[in-house]
Specification:
Elements (H helix, E strand, L loop, with lengths): L10 H15 L1 H8 L3 H9 L7 H8 L4 H8 L9 H13 L1 H22 L2 E3 L2 H14 L2 H17 L3 E3 H14 L1 H22 L1 H9 L17 H10 L3 H13 L3 H5 L6 E2 L4 E7 L4 E6 L2 H32 L7 H6 L6 H16 L7 H12 L4 H8 L4 H11 L4 H11 L5
Antiparallel strand pairs: 1-2, 3-4, 4-5
Helix pairs in contact: 1-2, 1-4, 1-5, 6-7, 8-9, 8-11, 9-11, 10-11, 11-12, 13-18, 14-16, 14-18, 14-19, 19-20
Length: about 425
């Protein structure tokens, strides 16, 4: 199959393709590949034969790379690309079949592996939830249907309405560590949702999501890897992407769940008092407040937030166009702008994991940083109850009982304990 539609090329570009093939492979080789004699090929080059058959040019395109064809047809040059230019390229690809074939070939040749690695996120829409509600009500007993609906609302809210393999796996393991029965029910609902709703929208991704976790049968003991502060510092120092670097920093120094950090808004960070105001509470988790070390707050204020604001400013127009072109996806522009991490989670994870492999020779789950935080603080002498408070491990009911009857502690005292015992990467 030819890489381009030669019917839309003028005679000059057709001739350039033939000359480039001869320059690259030699006259004799090209003559054999085209199944024409050398004298005929020379007459094409010398202009003695004005009209070059399309089938000859098509065969020549197979002897050249996409990059070489680009140089001939479009003029290969490097320029500053802004979102408006990128969006114009997409529009041209939609409207121009010849350019679209060329463009897709080029993308997959140079970015195919990257596209495969990052296309693993599914955004749950209101339409998805409505369709799931209709499905379970029509196919399940009333009690079972109500259970699935209650579960999927809780699951999607906890996951920030974004499904990725890693986030689902960590979510189910977190539930399983506290209540294996609840984890089993939630996993059953999630598999049903993926099978009946996500599969119809994205069959390839649905298989990846479906296979990323198992329905817990018994409470198994998971042993997180032994991590050291020195190795985590090495990983941190080697991460070049500022978004991924900052995410890793907060995960190590707060011990919060990945979803909790990814769902943070900028206005939940009080840099003056070095407080993270999660204010999250549900039936299984309490994640109310956490803190920042002084150097981390300084990095956020002086380096990360300016980078965040510039990123939002640069891509806001593109996101607005994307939202307008896909109204059913429920893209909330203001929510995206307000997020502390307005980036794709899977891309950040990939960049972090790449550095894990370089430093450690293997990877570990980002969720394991939560275990590291707890063990680090306990080994340094922190009160286990304070660690539970900081990580939101106590349920709301247990927290109120402890606070009201057994252990009264102020936010200032919590921060003092955090400053004294929590791990530092900076």
């Amino acid at each position: 199959m030819p890489k381009i539609d030669v019917n839309k090329l003028d005679d000059e570009k057709k001739l350039k393709i033939i000359k480039k093939a001869i320059e690259k492979h030699g006259l004799s080789y090209v003559s054999r590949q085209l199944e024409i004699n050398r004298s005929t090929l020379n007459r094409y080059i010398n202009g003695k034969i004005q009209t070059i058959p399309n089938e000859v040019v098509e065969k020549c395109t197979e002897l050249l790379t996409i990059e070489e064809l680009s140089d001939i047809i479009y003029g290969l040059r490097t320029v500053e690309i802004d979102p408006t230019i990128a969006f114009s390229v997409i529009i041209k690809a939609i409207r121009d079949e010849s350019f679209r074939n060329f463009f897709i070939n080029l993308i997959w040749q140079y970015l195919g592996d990257y596209l495969k690695s990052v296309s693993n996120s599914y955004i749950v829409s209101k339409e998805d939830l409505d369709l799931f509600e209709k499905f379970v009500k029509n196919n399940k007993a009333k009690r079972t249907a109500n259970m699935h609906l209650q579960n999927i609302r809780r699951i999607t809210a906890d996951l920030g309405y974004e499904l990725t393999s890693e986030r689902i796996k960590e979510y189910i393991l977190d539930l399983q560590s506290k209540n294996v029965n609840k984890a089993r029910h939630y996993a059953t609902t999630l598999k049903l949702f993926i099978k009946e709703i996500v599969k119809s929208r994205n069959p390839i991704l649905s298989r990846e999501l479906y296979d990323s976790f198992k329905i817990p049968k018994t409470k198994t003991l998971y042993r997180p890897p032994i991590l050291t502060l020195d190795s985590l510092k090495q990983i941190f120092q080697n991460i070049n992407d500022l978004g991924a670097k900052t995410l890793f920093l907060l995960l190590v120094e707060t011990g919060l769940r990945v979803g909790e950090v990814m769902n943070l808004r900028v206005d939940q960070i009080d840099l003056d008092h070095r407080i993270i105001k999660l204010m999250k509470e549900n039936e299984t988790k309490r994640a109310y407040i956490s803190f920042l070390h002084e150097k981390t707050a300084k990095l956020l204020r002086e380096t990360y937030l300016p980078y965040h604001d510039e990123f939002v400013r640069k891509y806001e127009n593109s996101v607005r166009k994307l939202a307008a072109a896909n109204p059913n996806q429920g893209i909330d522009i203001e929510n995206w702008k307000a997020k502390l991490f307005p980036f794709r989670e899977d891309i950040l994870r990939t960049k972090i994991e790449n550095e894990m492999r370089k430093i450690l020779g293997s990877t570990f789950r980002l969720y394991d940083l939560r275990s590291f935080f707890a063990s680090y603080m306990l080994k340094r002498g922190a009160n286990p109850m304070i660690v539970d408070f900081l990580q939101g491990r106590a349920s709301p009911k247990d927290f109120r009982i402890l606070q009201n009857h057994y252990f009264v502690i102020s936010e200032i005292e919590l921060q003092q304990n955090y400053d004294k015992y929590a791990p530092k990467l900076l």
